[in-house]
Amino acid sequence: MDVAIKVADLAKRYGDLAAVDGVSFEVKTGEFFGILGPNGAGKTTTLEIVEGLREPDSGEVGLLGMRPWPRNPELAMRIGVQLQSSAFFDRLTAREQLRTFAELYGVSSARADEMLEVVGLTDKARTRIEKLSGGQAQRLSIACALVHDPELVFLDEPTAALDPQARRNLWDLLRRVNSDGRTVVLTTHHMDEAESLCDRVAIMDSGRVLTIDSPAKLVRDLHAATHISISSGFLTVEQAAGVAGAEAHVEDDGLDLTFTTHDPARILTALAERSALDGLRVRGATLEDVFLELTGREYRA
Prior knowledge:
Layout: E1 3-14, E2 17-28, E3 32-36, H1 43-51, E4 58-63, H2 73-76, E5 79-82, H3 94-104, H4 109-118, H5 134-146, E6 152-156, H6 164-179, E7 183-188, H7 191-197, E8 200-205, E9 208-213, H8 215-222, E10 226-231, H9 237-244, E11 249-252, E12 256-261, H10 264-273, E13 281-283, H11 287-295
Parallel strand pairs: 3-7, 3-8, 5-6, 6-7
Antiparallel strand pairs: 1-2, 1-4, 8-9, 10-12, 10-13, 11-12
Helix pairs in contact: 3-4, 4-5, 5-6
């Protein structure tokens, strides 16, 4: 596949802070690529440099075969950018806002109206921005990023602060955006979002890329334990310890009895033989486990 983005040894400092410190990665054409990291990891700064919104101190960026900095007007028609927070004109309706963006790109009003339908906002065309829900405003923001039909789209935490239903609804839209042939680059704090949407992810911390691979491969390589839970009361902790053996850890919180093990088949068989499968839940490793293993568990403000 062709390479849509090539980043080599990118660096950006603010005084003593190395916001981006030697970042390198490539994004293939048509790929859904995620950039993950805790607060202050350098995700947004990296994205802004790649988009041509910020000048790097050093390093190279190739965007669709061109340099994004100094600002390249030729790239403006080929990329779409949805920022963490979008500044709309509150007194405009959704249709007026989108048509304004279309005018800036020299795109017809008909195309703007078509995009309202694409993002499911036709029935909100006459609604002022200030009256839209969070999910509707995010959909409009994405429509503005897509109105000129870009081949490469950047999405910076598009589902932040949305409720679970609005998030899942927006995921369906983002899948359609990518399935139309567009390359999508996403930053997010939601590990389930990245696991569901992304072909590959880069995990960043302290301005550096720690690892890049598909979510499934990162999870497999973690070799994490499996958590098997049943309802409390079917086995005592002592009985459960006998089932678990020396290899597994057992914990009973009064609601669930949980085995943490690297040999789930043996424990599941033993539980089945004792007819102790009530409330059974089995959880393997997830991308969140990989993320915490690499970046640590301390809170980042």
